[in-house]
Amino acid sequence: MEAGSCPCPDTGSQEQQVYKPLESLARHSLSVKVDDSIYVVDKDVLTQNCEYFRALFQSGMKECQQEEIHLKCLGAVGFFVMLRILNGEWPMLSSNEIVEAIECTAFLQVNALTKYLINITNSENCLLMYSTAASYGVWELFHSSALFIRDIYSDLEEDVHTLPRELVDYIKSLIPSSYMVVCSHSPAIKLLQDFQRTVCYLDEGDKEWKVLTHLPKNTSTTMAGVAVLDNKLYIIGGVHDVSKKVVDAGFCYNPETDTWCTIPSPNQLRYNFTLIGHEDCLYAIGGEYDRKAMSSVERYRVSNGTWSFASNLPCPAASLANAKTMSRIFICLWMAKGATNIHEYVPEKDQWVLVTTLIREQSYALCMVAHKENLYVMRNGPCDDFLLCVMDCYNLSSGQWTAMPGQYGNSKGSLLTAVVRGDSVFTLSRLVTTEYTIRDYKWKTKKKMEGFGRIGSMYTFLMRLPKPTVSRMGDAEALTHTPNYGGLFDSAQSSMQCFEKL
To answer: Which of 197, 333, 456, 479 lies at a CB distance of 3.0 to 4.6 Å from 183, suitable for a disulfide?
Structure first.
C-alpha cells in the first residue's frame, strides 16, 4: 500500500466508499471490501504483513485468483487503521479505533499492528487495551498492557476493580518496575574492595534506596554506556582512570538469576557515548576515543552476539541527551549558537531523520525524557548557568514547542537524569528523590523520598526485579535473592490458557 492520508471511512454510511491510493501501486494490486468500503491495496504488502492473507494466497484456493476479496467478519475502521500503520503512519487512536484495530490484528494476525498498539498504550487507554486484548486473544498486547497497568496500579486501582476478577488477579501477579540507579565508578583495585560499587533500587514503600547487586570488579561505569534491554542491565565500555583508557569489555546483569556475564565490546572502542536498547539490539551512539568525538554508530544484536556498524550521526557528538517513546528513538545534537537539533533514528531504514530544532540562546540539552507524544528537553539556563534547569516540550503530533513554566532543577542538578514510568517522572539528586506527576505543560510534585547520597554521575533506569532479600545501601554484607520469575511466567501462561476458554 502506498497511500494512507485519506480520512477514516464513515462506516455508518450505506453508500459504498472506495479507498484509492494517492500514488501508483505495485503491479499486484487487490481490492478488499470491508463493510461498505473498498480498499485498493498492494497484495505483496498484505502477504508480507498479514498471516491471514499469507495463508490465503498460498492455499491454492479460488480467492488467490480473485481481484476482489470480501472480509465479512471485520470492521472497516480497524482495517483502515491497519493500512495506515503498514504505510508507516503514527496515528493517535480513539477508543472505537482501538477496539476495531485489536479485532483486526486478532483476525488477520498483523504483527506490525499488534506492535503499534503496544507502543501507544498509555494511562488513558491501557484498561481498554487490556480487556479488549483478553477478549480477542491478542496475548502479546494483553501481557504488555497488564504490565503497564501494574506499574501505575495505585493510580488506577478503583477502575481496575471494575474488571473481571481473573483479569485483576493477573495484573496483581505481575511485578512492577523499580526505579534504579548506579553511580560512576572506575574498575575496582584488586586488593581493595569498594562497597560503594553497587546497583541500587528505590524501595517506594520505605521511601529509601537499597542495594540490589555489586558491580563486577572489572566493570567501569565512568563514561560508560548504560542501558536496559529485555529487563537486563547492560554496561558497555567506560574508562579506567583519567588516562581515558577504555575498558575492553561489556557486562550484562540478569535480575532473574542475579548473575553477571560478559559480552563483546563494540568494534570501535569508545567512551562518553550513548547506549540505547531497542528490539533485541543495543545501539552505541557517538562518543569519544583518544579524546576525539566520533559520529560512528554500532548495533549489537543480542540474539547472535555480534556488533555491526549502522548509519553515522549527522555530526560527531558525545554524551547525547536521548529518549524513547512509542518505540521511537530520539537524540539531541547541539549545533552551537543556541540551536539543538532533535533527530530520530529509524531502525527499519537505518536512517537519522531531523525532527525539529530548538533555539535557545546560550543553552543546550542536558537531558531528555518522553511521555506519550511529548519530548521534554531539560537544558541549562542562560549565561551558562548550570545550576538552573529549565524545560521545553515538543509535541510530535502537532510539531509545536512549548516553554514549560517554572524551574525544575536545583543546585544539585536533579534533572540531569530522569526516568518516566506511567504518568510519573522520577528525578534524583544527592539530597532528594522527587516523583512528579506529568501534565502536558506542567509537572506537579507528587512525593519526595530519600536522595542518593553518593558522589559521581548517576545513571537511572527502570527494571522489574524478583522480590529480593537485600541489605541497606550502606551495609557490606553479600546479597541474597529468591528469584521468582519462573513462577511469574508460569502463572502468566496458566492465566492466558484460562482466558482462551472465556
So the answer is: 456
Q: What is the DSSP letter of 26?
A: P
Gap between the Cα atoms of 103 and 136, Å rounded: 7
Q: Determine the residue type at 269.
A: L
- With 0-12 / 13-18 / 19 or more C-beta atoms within 10 angstroms meaning exposed / middle / buried, residue 251 is buried
Provide the pLDDT confidence category of residue 484 given band limits of 50, 70 and 90: very low
| Residue 442, C-alpha cell as written in the block | 506542567
- Taking alpha carbons only, the member of 199, 86, 190 closest to residue 459 is 199
Q: How confident is the model over 145-174, as pLDDT tens digits?
A: 999 999 999 999 999 999 999 999 999 999
**In 10 A of CB 456, how many CB atoms?**
13
Q: How many CB atoms lie within 10 A of CB 390?
A: 22
Provide the phi-psi class of 336: left if phi over 0, else alpha when psi is between -120 and 50, else beta: left
CA 44 to chain centre: 30
- Number of other residues whose CB lies within 10 A of the CB of residue 153: 15
Residue whose entry in the numeric block shows the C-alpha cell 550502606 = 474
DSSP 8-state secondary structure symbol assigned to residue 75: -
* 368 backbone dihedrals φ, ψ, rounded to 5°: -140, 135
**SS3 of 498, please?**
helix
Rounded CA-CA distance 201/176 in Å is 12
Distance from C-alpha of 427 to C-alpha of 181, rounded to nearest angstrom: 11
- Within its chain, how far is the Cα of 365 from the centroid? 20
The answer to whether the CB of 113 falls within 8 A of the CB of 120 is: no
User: What is the dotted CATH code of the domain comprising 1-120?
Assistant: 3.30.710.10
Quote the pLDDT of residue 26: 47
